[in-house]
Specification:
GO terms for molecular function: carbohydrate binding; galactoside binding. The protein is an alpha+beta fold. Helices cover about 25% and strands about 30% of the residues. It has four helices and 13 strands. It has helices at about 205-210, 215, 220-230, 235-275, and strands at about 5, 10-15, 25-30, 40-45, 55-60, 65-75, 75-80, 80-85, 95-100, 105-110, 115-120, 130-135, 135-145. The longest helix has about 40 residues, at about 235-275. The chain is elongated.
Length: about 280
């Protein structure tokens, strides 16, 4: 029997339909929404993050490096990390990701093909929750080969934040971090990506604006003040002013050189035409 959840809000936490057993599968369909982002999936024993409950299977999908990291978190300690290269998951491409449990471990399928596996470090029956977060868009989560209905509500541990907001409400950033994250590319769970603001046109350079700069207008007063205090700031101000002036002189000389060369070229061309 299958149970499907469509368009879940991230971060997403859901109690499994029942105790996980060999033969149960979790199918996740979605796409990566950030070029350098990731997608983290946990199969864990509880819904608590402070302190975090045991994680039988931690998955981190990294399209930028085409890797999938696998690990476990048991009794407050991360285990030995395993890496699988040549992942077919790419930025802005839909993926069909399946986690299947058997007696030996978890089998990972991507787009209908077996990709990698992870041996059990905890009994599969200890897994009660699935958690998903990161720079991805999840279109559906399907529980396959479970024989009971998906619970209508989640029993949340009082010490843990609420991770499953009502779909009609706006996403709420989750103010917690996974302890001692075992690898790089860390992001706060639930925090939205930085907005992309349009680039405004840079104003044209006007030499008169330089003379109105507070650094230059107040130069005599600041110079005298810093000399009296014995500070080295006057030299820094002088270097800055000289650099600005040299930039202006360079532009002026460049303009004069172009004009002179252009005039010489026109003179030579006119002389040749007369001949």
């Amino acid at each position: 029997m299958s149970h499907q959840i469509t368009s879940p809000v991230l971060p997403f936490m859901r109690r499994l339909p029942s105790e996980m057993q060999p033969g149960c599968r979790i199918r996740i369909r979605g796409a990566m929404s950030r070029p350098n982002g990731d997608c983290r999936i946990h199969l864990q024993s509880g819904d608590c993050f402070d302190p975090m409950d045991d994680v039988a299977l931690h998955l981190n999908l990294l399209p930028a490096t085409r890797e999938i990291l696998r690990n476990s978190y048991i009794s407050g300690q991360w285990g030995q990390e395993e890496r699988a290269a040549n992942s077919p998951i790419n930025f802005e491409e839909d993926f069909d990701f399946v986690i299947g449990a058997d007696s030996g471990g978890y089998n990972i399928e991507i787009n209908g093909h077996h990709f990698t596996s992870f041996n059990h470090r905890l009994p599969v029956q200890t897994v009660r929750f699935v958690f998903i977060t990161g720079g991805c868009v999840i279109r559906s989560v399907m529980f396959e080969h479970w024989n009971t209905a998906v619970p209508s509500a989640i029993s949340v541990n009082p010490s843990a934040p609420v991770l499953n907001p009502v779909p009609s409400s706006p996403p709420i950033p989750v103010p917690f971090q996974i302890p001692s994250w075992p690898h790089g590319n860390f992001q706060h769970f639930g925090m939205p990506p930085a907005p992309m603001y349009p680039q405004l046109p840079h104003p044209a350079f006007n030499p008169a604006m330089l003379l109105q700069h507070p650094l230059i207008m107040n130069f005599p007063n600041e110079m005298q003040k810093n000399i009296e205090n014995g500070s080295s700031m006057p030299y820094k101000i002088m270097i800055t002013v000289l650099w600005k002036i040299s930039c202006i002189l360079f532009k002026v000389l460049k303009f004069i050189l172009v004009a002179v060369l252009g005039g010489v070229g026109m003179y030579i061309l006119a002389k040749r035409l007369r001949l």
